[in-house]
Amino acid sequence: LQDSHLKDEL
Amino acid sequence: MNIFRLAGDVSHLVAILILLMKIWRSKSCAGISGRSQVLFALVFTTRYLDLFTVYISAYNTVMKVVFLALSYATVYLIYMRFRNSYDSENDTFRVEFLLIPVIGLSFLENYAFTPLEILWTFSIFLESVAIMPQLFMITKTGEAESITTHYLFFLGLYRALYIANWVWRYHTEGFYDQIAIVSGVVQTIFYCDFFYLYVTRGEEIRTPS
User: Fold this and answer.
1) Where is pLDDT greater, at B153 or B202?
2) Please, how many CA atoms are within 13 Å of residue B141, restricted to the half-sphere of its CB?
C-alpha cells in the first residue's frame, strides 16, 4: 500500500 | 473515479450553489459567515495551484475552475456587492486561531517539503476547520435560516462521501492518502452535531444559546 501523492481528488 | 467521490463532488457543488443562489436571490448575506467563505476561497486557491501544471482529466480541471470561480464569487457578493447586509457583529470568530495551527501543522506533517506540497497540506488541514466561523456565528445568533442549514448539510455530506470514497479506493486500488483521510474525518466530525440538529429539528435550527 502506498501513500499516493497524485492529487487526483478535488 | 467512483460513485462516492462523484456524489461527494456533486454534493459539494450543490452546497456552494445553494449558498451563492441564496445570497444572490435574497440580495443579502445576513447570517452568513464571510470569514468561512474567505477561508474556503483560500482552501481552493492553495489546493488548486496545480491547475496549470498538472492535467489529470477534463472533469478535474473543470471542477477546480468552477469551485474557484464560485467561491470567489461568493466572497465578492458578501464583502462587496451586499456588504451592507453583512453581519460583521456576529461574524467574529478569530480565524488566526485556525490559521496559525494549520500553518504550523502543514510544515510539520506533509508528504514533501516543497511549496506545492506544503500549500496542498495547508489547504487540506484548513478545509477541516474552515466551517468553524459559520458554526460559531450560528451559535452566536442562536439560529440558522433553513437554506443555510441545507448548505451546511450538503457541505458536511460531501466530506462524509469522500470518506466512503477513501474506503472504496483502499479496497479496490490500495490507494490511501493519510493526510486527507485524517483531516477529512476531523472535518466530518465537526458536522456531526449539526447533522443531529438538522435531522431531529428539521429545517429551522435554533441552537441552545
Assistant:
1) B153
2) 21
Q: Rounded to an integer, what distance in angstroms lies between the CA atom of residue B174 and that of residue B193?
A: 32
Grid cell digits, residue B122: 495547508
Evaluate if residue B180 carries a pLDDT over 90: yes
B176 vs chain A: nearest CA distance in angstroms?
A: 6
Main-chain dihedrals φ then ψ at residue B207, nearest 5 degrees: -80, 140
Yes or no, beta carbons of B111 and A3 under 8 Å apart: yes
Average predicted confidence (pLDDT) for chain B: 95
- Nearest Cα of chain B lies from the Cα of A10 at a distance, in angstroms, of 7
Q: Beta-strand (E) ranges in chain A?
A: 2-3
| B66 CB-near residues (< 8 Å, 6+ apart) | B13
This model of the complex carries an ipTM of 0.85
Residues of A in contact with B120 (CB under 8 A): 7
Per CB-CB distance under 8 Å, the chain A contacts of B67 are: 10
